[in-house]
What does this fold into?
Amino acid sequence: MKLLNSTARGSSAVLAGALLLGSLTACGGGSTQAGTKVDTSTLTLAIDSDSASFGYDPLRVSAAQRQFFEGLYDSLMVLKADGSAVPGLATAFEYNADNTVLTLTLKEGVTFTDGSTLDAALVKANLDRRSDPALSAYSAVAKGGAQEITSVDVVSPTKVSLTFAKAQPGFEKNLASTTGMIVGKAGVTDTASLAATPAGSGPYTIDASTVKGNKYVMVKNDKNADASKYAFSKVIFSVIQDPQARANALVSGQADVAMLTSPTVDFAKSKGLGISQIGGTLHTMVSFDKIGKTAPAFASEKVRQAFQYAINRKALVDALHKGDIPAWNALPKDSAGFTEELNTKFAYDPAKAKSLLAEAGFANGFEFTIVGSAETQTDLQAVQKDLAAVGITMNVKMASSTDEAFAAVATTPLGYAALGWDNPVGLMYGVVLNGFTNVQKATDDQLTAATGEAAAAKDDAAKKAALTKLNTRLVESGWMIPLYESLTNQGYNTKKIKQVEFAGTNAYPLLSSYAPAS
Amino acid sequence: MALFITKRLLMALATVLVVAVLAFLLVHAMPGSPGAVSLGAGASQEAIDEVNARLGWNDPLVVQFVRWLGDAVQGNLGTSLIDGRSVSDDLANRLPVTASLAAGATLLSGVLGVALGVTAAVRGGMVDRIVGGICGMAVALPAFWIGIIFVYLLAVQSSVFPATGYVPFEASPQDWALSLALPVITLAVGGAAFIARQTRASMLEALQQEHIRTLRATATPTWKILYVHALRYASLPIVAGIALQFIGLFGGSVIAEQLFAMPGLGQAVQTSVSTHDAPSVQGVVVIATVVVVAVNLVLELATKFLDPKLRAS
It folds into this structure.
């Protein structure tokens, strides 16, 4: 080093400084601020998962992907802003006297991107795919499903009838989700083509600039008569899995609307962004076994009730789910069936839990195993501690495979799931009474009756009465042991987007409801 | 030289083949089958068996591998079990993203690292200690943490750069550069520190060589001594370090792609593994191997060019 003079040392330092400055300024590229660009022709939504991970077949996904596919496909019924279902591709519907046949009258002049047109034969071709087990949207209407469709018949070119295995009053609401979306002829004939090419008649079409799994770009479909109801000429669904990155994208202007997790809401608010919130998703322990087949204690309603008293929901939420709502109701806070009575009736009371266990013959407690996952592990550990305090030993076994997780409904007495109650009747028939949470085929006359009453309810008062009865019984019977209600948060740039509105209790706003700020 | 290149090319091909075999065997050792993966949990065994038979899953492993290899050399890496898309097309779209990220970060870390390393070696004393301390911290800090800090400072607080996303070069060169800025800087910090340390050590050794003293004695300009003679003498380990950086960044881009929502190979492999999409996993592994082997080959050729002793041998 002493070989070099000060000029040499200076030159190397200058070079280092110049390179450092140069590299930073080169990367900087000026002062363009993405956050201040306002482009009312484009709506960018930051979503938490790839809605089209299975390609562009809307029948391969559940109702949670309705918003994305609403852009590409029309459905037989459509959701309105108040959450009710009204005619869409079906201009009218009617049931027969015993609610076992639903006849739909179809809209005329609907053209799909593959050039095909809507008619009864196309609707039948769509619904006749229901035996395909890969089609999640059809799982309830497939053979053996809770809302099984036994046949689909073409009555005339514009009329098609759906015959059910048993009475299905109120089924039409299911047709406002992905179940009711109609795929064009090319997609039905060659389902593999849907991997890369949608075949819909919706208000948007996929643009070539789409990058699968990262950014889906939709542009207006001029052939759709209702396209004008959608405010933005281009919609971009940007997939950002990391919650903080989604919030950052919203703050820095890469997204106009973003699905936010509760912990990032305060951060977004502090940056002056708008937040719209809705509940609706109940994180609930579900009694798989109500007859004591996998654990004798679960045959007793008193034991299942003891769980309700033993769990300290408030502590759970404070510790692990700040911002969400502790739940003693099986149905969400915004549901017509919600009742404050349950909040007090089943408030945390370990002494009462012990007393119920003793009455049921389990004064010394009992032991059972629950299968958990990475997502549910911490919640289950919190519950485990509460149950141990009243003498119940809950062993948490982490699922080593998806198969094991699915098999748990038959091999273990209790599970833990996030349930959306947007369609209580559909959930009861499809999941709770006849579906995967009741493989032991337990029965409860009060639940069956309350579900039937809710399905047949003709007005709001009747619906409220039936749902309240249903909700109360779900908790009293211990079929459901609710823990907390998570909030769905939509953050939005108030300078560009009007306040985001949810469609009734649906956690995913209608794509048509996003409007530019005036 | 021709013989040397031929030998290295053959070794590179053999390496790719061995990795392809290993990837093939590992993918087949994964639980489940293509039918179970593509049809989902509710599928009947009959339906699963039908798909497996159609895809040749029941054929002997050797037959399956030869079939896959035959298609692969023609550019066909199969189709995704999840959405039926061409794996080759998907990876072709993603490769430029990861390559841009890795190349940009390598370039930046190389330039910064060499500059800092030379400065530390030449200035010595306090400057050397400061550079050493900064490099020590930069190597120790996790890339995701550095990324979070940069995003907060340069995207959330000041909106200098976009916080997330990737813009293809053909769409807008300026937006492409902006979209790469934060992830590139994030990845380059640790790499620059590593290269700075490497450069400092090599330069110190170079500056003590006799030919450098001779050059000083003959009044050769200082900048020429430093940046032509000494740096060239010290360049072998630096070049090797930069190449290793590229390989590491190429393979380790998952965190940056996740943090910045970039549609690269890292994101693809994460999704493919989580969905048990065997053809996609296999495709990514093979493509990544080809890139690494190619970089190693270039490195060997560069080393031969830079070192007269190796060139003569």
